[in-house]
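Hi C.,

You asked whether I'd gotten around to modeling the 397-residue construct. I have! Everything is below, sequence then structure, no commentary in between.
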Amino acid sequence: MKRVYTLLLLSGALTLHAQQINGSFDGEWLADTLGNASIPGTLLRPGTQPEGWQASNVNQKVLMTKKAVLVTPDADRTKVDEGYSVKMVNTYVGVGQIGSNAPAYITLGAPWVYAVMNLDQCDGGTLGGMAFTHRPDAITGWYKAEGLTDNDPAKVIAYAWNGTYTSKVLTNPKGAASSKTDTTVTDQDRVIWYQEGYTEATDDAKLISKSELAIGENTDEWTPFTMQINYLDTETLPQKINVVFSACNYWQRSLIAKDGTLWVDDVAFVYYHALSALTVDGVSVAGFAEKKTAYTVDVPYTDDVVVDYKVKGVGAKAEGSYNAETCVYTITVKGDDYAENPESKTVYTIQFKQIDTAIGSVGVHGAASAPVFNLKGQRVAAPVKGANIIGGKKLIK
C-alpha cells in the first residue's frame, strides 16, 4: 500500500531564531489544534507534541473511531530535569485483523490521513512546512533506536522549496467504510519530493534541496548523527522547509515494522563557515587544514600577489583584506546564519614576510637599480614622493 506525505504551512508556531528549529524538544508539549490536515480542524490528534512540531498520533474514523498515541516525551539525553527527548513508536491501529501499522514521526508540517476499510487504498502523509529563507549545510542530532529492520529503517528527511504546489487527495469526511471524496491541498510532500503529481504550481515553484538519511542500527546508547543537505540549486533562497524524523521507512507504508522505535534529541541546523582551500599565487598554502586558522608564508605581499580561497558552506560569504603595517592578510568567513548568530564566523590569517624598514641611511632621491618598495611593503616601479625603501635603505624623495 502506498504512503503519501503532504504538508500544511505553519506560521507563527515557533518563537526561535529564524535560522533554527526547536531541536531540544524541551519546554511545554502542546495539544494538537490542526487535526487531519486534509480536512482541517477535524479528528484532533490525541497526546501532545513539542512546540513547533506536529506528531503523527492517530485519530481516525472508519465506521468507528480509533485513537493511538505514537509520539511521547521521554527522558532528556543529558538528563536535564525539565528537558525531553522525543520517543516515536510504530503502532498497530485497527480492530482485530482489520488494521495496519501506523507510522510514528514528527514533522514541521501537518499530518493528514485517508483511512477506509480497504487497506490498500489507505493513504496519508504531511502537508506544508514552515516559512524559511536560510540555507543550512547539515542537520545534526542524537538518536537511540530499537526494533528497526533492514526493510524498515528510521529516516531523517529534509527538503526546501519555493512557491506552492497544488494537488488532490482522497478524504473520508464521514468516516464511512469507503469514500471517493477528494479535496485540493497544497505543498504535499511526495509531490514536492518527486516533482510530480501536482495539478498546478505557481511560477516560482521549485525544489531547492532534498536530503534523506536512513538509520538502521538499533542501539540503546545515544548516538550522534549528521545528515548533509543536498542542494539542487545553490543560488536561490528557499521560502519553505520541512524536516521529518520518522521511526519507519517514511515513504513505504507497507514495510512499517510494528514497535519500531526511534528516539531523537538535540537536533539542529548546522551552517558551515570555513575555507576548503587556500592558495597564494596559485600554490596551496603549506599545512592548510580547514580548522587551522593561522599561516605564515616566506614572501612579501605586493600588488601582484594573488590570495585565493574556496568557501565551505552553501550560503557562507568570505572577505579578504591586507594590513600593510602588520603584513597580515585576513580572511573572514561568515555562515549563512551570521546575522542571527554572530558566532557563525571563522577568521583566517596569513603572515607575509615583513620588509626591513630600518633606516640604514638617508639620502636624496636618485636613480636606483635595486628593487623599490613603499612603506607599506608594496613593490613599486619607481620611487614615489615621500619615503621609499631602495636596496634595504630608507630614502626620501
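If it helps when you're writing up: The longest strand covers residues 206-215.

Thanks,
B.
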